[in-house]
Amino acid sequence: MESEFYIKSFCHIKDNKVSLNGTVIYNDNDTLDFLDFIKAAYRSFDTKYPKFFKMDGLSKLAFLASDLILREEKLNLEDENNIAIVFSNKSSSLDTDEKHQESIQNKDNYYPSPAVFVYTLPNICIGEISIKYKLHSENSFFIFDSFNAEYLSDYTNSLLSANKANEALCGWVEFDGVAYDAFLYLVSRKGTTIHTKQNIVNLYNT
Q1: Which class for 15: exposed (0-12), middle (13-18), buried (19 or more C-beta within 10 A)?
Q2: Taking the model in full, what pTM does it have?
């Protein structure tokens, strides 16, 4: 049975490139370090959210990809927006967990860093996105060995079928300190690309 839901838009951030709906909109071949790259990309899109610079790497990655998708929706930020978030990755918040552990073991620090500790759950990045766009709906962060398009498709379609949200921001946000890969997409009741496992995989590989 075909899905009644559609992929409205999608964003991919990987290999020093940012693409929106299949078109590269930012490319930095000179910057190899992730943090330098993501900050430069953030500034190039004139994104105004000062807290971005305090986020951990995973949250920066998820936030920028989400922002590029959601800014196109022209949401009313004075009202609550009924958009669910369904994210996934492989490493959870391991990069930040390791930094937190290092701060605990550092004998020069009497207290571990609260600025690091606050990001020791992968779903904290969902909170950052929800705060800016006033998203008050279902949210989940799943951990898989690899990108699981079938689960994302089934779970999100079920969520929307149950009217628990009007739309859903879904995808894969992987960051391990060096390698990174964000592929997020917005699922809606209107569009041209049916929200199925195969179509998700096709867009992911675009």
Answers
A1: exposed
A2: 0.89
